[in-house]
Automatic annotation (TrEMBL):
Keywords carried by this UniProt record: Isomerase, Magnesium, Metal-binding, Phosphoprotein
EC number(s) stated in the UniProt entry for this protein: 5.4.2.10
Protein name: Phosphoglucosamine mutase
Originating gene: glmM
Segments forming domain Alpha-D-phosphohexomutase alpha/beta/alpha: 3-143, 165-260, 264-375
Molecular function in Gene Ontology: magnesium ion binding; phosphoglucosamine mutase activity; phosphomannomutase activity
Organism this protein belongs to: Protaetiibacter larvae
Record's keyword annotation contains Membrane: no
HAMAP family found in the cross-reference section: GlmM_B (MF_01554_B)
Cofactors (names): Mg(2+)
Any one of the GO CC terms: cytosol
Modifications made to the protein after synthesis: Activated by phosphorylation.
CDD domains noted in UniProt: GlmM
Length: 455
């Protein structure tokens, strides 16, 4: 039976086969059992005081019944619930630590379309759960539930100042004002629709807003970090200094310069890593980045004496590497950027603020700052319906990869990796020329298809 939890919680079609009210109720009850017992026992509040949890959601319509089921599962397990309503995922993580809650639950499917939804948990301090704790929660689905009665039942309360707490936290991370900057915010009709434009305005920026009218069904629909065309056009039309794009739950940030050119997560990391290093705020002169980060990031960081700790794909693995190596900064090409001084997870609003602050601090345009890194042409081919588990044991594929890697030398890179959720292999090639990268990727994809096709 496949594992219920994926790389970022449990996700699927809301009211479909996986994400149901029954599952939400059961997961909440199982999490209450696991996250307040065993090695998490230090979370339990002392005699006469119940454990408490923060729950939040993005604005998709299914989040209403799912979060209600989560709240019911927690309260029926003796957990006091603080319902923060619609706020970004990083806000939920922050609030868990800010009020010293025992854990948190976020109902969101991030950048996925509106019919999908998901459930993810944060442990004490607002950190993501390791795989082994998620596995314990999944196992607890079939175990007896905590079932207090009378005064032992948890209470459900509105977390009335949740957004204000988060907004003040974000403002507190800035060491400069944003006066004079014109910023376009694309909130993806998602969880950032209220707080992101507000915090930029409070920091002094002139703000133009896009994608900030969520109706429960339009989240990520033609807007946000996965659809940058409207943001690019509006930045050019309005003469703004930059555009900031979030995804549905606002844990990502991509940017657009004044000419409408996209500045992706790797470029944002390059800009901010060098800024942090210059200001003496980059521990060990290193950052964490995934195997999918562009070769240009590695070249640029080497030129500035900044080491890259490479991780598997997924911001949870970036976080784990940061904790293991004592790093303060890391992220992904997709725009999950993590500042461990301020956050326990990727925070798209925080990242956008810090990027805008670097414009204000240096007086440079975003286009000028982005020149710190040359983006190598990168081609990604997904080879579907193959035995992805057999990838690393195939000598023919290994020889082909080695041959092309040797041919590219320091001017390119080849990476093949199996999907963690479906039967496909991702073939990624970087080279100085896009045509060369495409040719090599297509050749390797053909070999993978031939070697790993299901018989």
């Amino acid at each position: 039976m496949p594992r219920l939890f994926g790389t970022d919680g449990v996700r699927g079609l809301a009211n479909g086969e996986v994400i149901t009210a029954d599952l939400a109720l059961g997961l909440a009850q199982a999490a209450a059992r696991v996250l307040t017992q065993g090695r998490h026992a230090d979370q339990v509040r002392g005699e006469g005081r119940r454990s408490r949890a923060v729950i939040a959601r993005d604005p998709r319509v299914s989040g209403e019944f799912i979060s209600a089921a989560v709240a019911a599962g927690l309260a029926s397990s003796g957990i006091d619930v603080l319902d923060a309503g619609v706020i970004p995922t990083p806000a939920a993580a922050f609030l868990v630590g800010d009020i010293d809650a025992d854990f948190g639950v976020m109902v969101s499917a991030s950048h996925n379309p509106a019919p999908d939804n998901g459930i993810k948990f944060f442990a004490l301090g607002g950190v993501k759960l390791p795989d082994e704790v998620e596995d314990r929660i999944e196992a607890a689905l079939s175990q007896p539930k905590l079932a207090p009665t009378g005064a032992g039942v948890g209470r459900i309360r509105r977390f009335s100042d949740a957004e204000d707490r988060y907004l003040l936290h974000l403002l507190g991370t800035l060491d400069v004002r944003l006066d004079g900057l014109h910023v376009v915010i694309d909130a993806a009709h998602g969880a950032a629709a209220g707080v992101s434009p507000q915090v930029f305005a409070d920091a002094g920026a002139r703000v133009t807003v896009l994608g900030a009218d969520p109706d429960g069904l339009n989240i990520n629909d033609g807007v946000g970090s996965t659809h940058l065309e409207k943001l690019q056009a509006l930045v050019r039309l309005s003469g703004a200094d930059l555009g900031i794009a979030h995804d549905g739950d606002a844990d990502r940030c991509l940017a657009v310069d004044a000419q409408g050119n996209v500045v992706d997560g790797d470029q944002i990391m390059a800009i901010l890593a060098v800024s942090l290093q210059r200001r003496g705020q980059l521990p060990h002169d290193a950052l964490a980045a995934t195997t999918m980060s562009n070769l240009g990031l590695r070249v640029a960081m080497a030129q500035h004496g900044i080491r890259i700790v490479e991780t598997a794909v997924g911001d949870r693995y970036v976080l784990e590497a940061m904790a293991e190596h004592g790093l303060g900064f890391g992220g992904e090409q997709s725009g999950h950027i993590i500042f461990s001084k301020y956050a326990t997870t990727g925070d798209g609003i925080l990242t956008g603020l810090q990027l805008a602050a670097e414009l204000a601090r240096t007086g440079k345009t975003l286009a000028e700052l982005a020149r710190i890194m040359t983006v190598y042409p990168q081609v990604l081919v997904n080879v579907r319906d193959v035995d992805h588990h057999a990838l690393h044991g195939d000598a023919v594929i290994a020889d082909a990869v080695a041959r092309h890697a040797a041919l590219l030398g320091d001017d390119g890179r080849v990476l093949l990796r199996p999907s963690g959720t479906e039967p496909l292999v991702r073939v990624m090639v970087e080279a100085l020329e896009a045509e060369q990268a495409q040719r090599i990727a297509d050749e390797l994809a053909g070999i993978v298809r031939e070697r790993l096709a299901f018989s």
